[in-house]
Amino acid sequence: MPPMSTAPIHRPEFHTLFFNCSHTSFKCPTTTTTATCTMAMDSRFSSTVNNNNNNNNNNMKKKEEEVSVQLSKPLIPKVENLRSNNIQFDRLQPSDEELVRENRFEFGQFVAREAVLDEEYWTAAWLRAECHWENRTYERYVDNFKRKFADQEFNALKRRCKVQNVESCACIITVKKEQKNVKRSILKSVVGTLDMNIRYLLQGETFPGERVKAPLFLSIRRTPPSRYGYIANLCVAKSARRQGIASNMLYFAVEAAKSNGVTQVYVHVDRNNRPAQILYQKIGFEIVETANSRLLTEETYLLRLQT
């Protein structure tokens, strides 16, 4: 039998940390422990130790690979932006033969219809940015603000028009009528825009927004009498105003709502915007006198048109 001996072993322990999937390790020693064990001093011990070291190295490599694989995955999911990278800002306005649309309304040198192309949606969003910042040109970085506003409105507009369930939204635009031997880009062709929304009144409402503090769980009356149209974001390019574009777009939008079985159309107007109030009243809109008190603080009128 081989001789037996007792020997102290000092084993400092290390913990290996990995950051950002890199192979660089940071070692921090823990408290050194002293252990006494009895060993048989023969060749089998050395082979056993070597095997254990090899197993430990293999296990560490496997752990490193597992950690690397797990950390290589993105922690935050990518949010897809609805803005298409294929938007061509110099794209020419398509001809009437290329756009076969049933609903269109021609007046003078213009045509009102629903937006079809992404470039038309983006130009509509840019017109809204122009109108929003029209009286604030003195501010610094106004062009950057308008571009950011247009991008955000484009994304929101595509979302609203994409969801076509019980409630729907349509972006109506006015474009310059096609002329022989004249080619225009979409950016220069679209001169007006508005949104026509088809919605439902909440239970107990007689007009939109009547219930200022609606319960958390409140049903929507999805019946024909509770269906209404709502107009928003009406604007016309500054260079194309005073040509009847706004009134004709409103007429087209109201007719489109009537074809969907809507009997009431609403719109909010700023109390200080007298020209807009006159425009809507010429179409047939009337102020809702019983509107809630919140509109008083917002300095806004609610107008209604009975179709």
UniProtKB/TrEMBL annotation:
SUPFAM superfamilies (UniProt xref): Acyl-CoA N-acyltransferases (Nat) (SSF55729)
Matching CDD domains: NAT_SF
Residue ranges annotated for the N-acetyltransferase domain, each copy included: 217-307
PROSITE patterns to which the protein is assigned, alphabetical: GNAT (PS51186)
InterPro entries xrefs: Acyl_CoA_acyltransferase, GNAT_dom
Residues spanning the signal sequence: none
A Gene Ontology molecular function term of the record: acyltransferase activity, transferring groups other than amino-acyl groups
Pfam families attached to this UniProt entry: Acetyltransf_1
Domain of life: Eukaryota
Protein name: N-acetyltransferase domain-containing protein
Organism: Crotalaria pallida
Phylogenetic classification of the source organism: Eukaryota, Viridiplantae, Streptophyta, Embryophyta, Tracheophyta
